[in-house]
Here is the input.
Amino acid sequence: MTDQQFQKALATVGGLVHIRNMMKGILKNPKQFQYLLNAIQQSASRTSYNASWVLKETAVVNASLFDAHVVVQLNQSILVHHHEGIVRNLLRIIKQLQLDEKQLEPIAAKCFDLAVDTNQPVAIRVFAADALHPILNAYPELRQELLLQLETNIEVAKPALKVCIKRLKKTGYCISV
Here is the structure.
C-alpha cells in the first residue's frame, strides 16, 4: 500500500477487517506508523479517531514499535484530545506497553488525574484506572489512594464505575481481561 493509498484508506476506514489490513501495512512500513502518530495529534477528526484505532490494534500485535519517543507523543495526545473514543484508544495502547520507570511517571500522573476527574465521562475514568494496573501492582499505596478517590462519590456513581471499583479491589483491573 502506497503512502497516498494509506492516507486515503485511513480517512475512509470502515470496519475491523479494514483496520487490521492497515495494521499489517504499518508493520511493513514504519513511515506509515509515523503518519498515524501525527494524525492522532490533530483535532478530533474521523482520521484522528481511525488512526488511534489502528494504533491500538498495532499495540496488541507488536508493542515493541512503541519506543520512548512514541510514548511521549501518546501522553501529549491524551492531554490534547477531548474526543472520548480517541482517548479510550490511547489508554488501551498505554495498557499494552511495557514502560520503564522514567516513562511511567508522567503517564501514571495523567491516568490518575483522568481516573479521579469527576468531569470526565465514566468510560474515560474506567479506562484510565485500568491503564494504571501495572503501576498499581508496583505501588500498592497508589491503589489505595485511587480507590479512596473513586469511592468518594460512590452513591451517585454510574454502574460502570461501581464495577470498576469492585474489580480494582479484587483483581487490580477495572475491565475484565
Notes: The chain has eleven helices and no strands. Residues 29 and 101 are 29 Å apart (CA to CA).
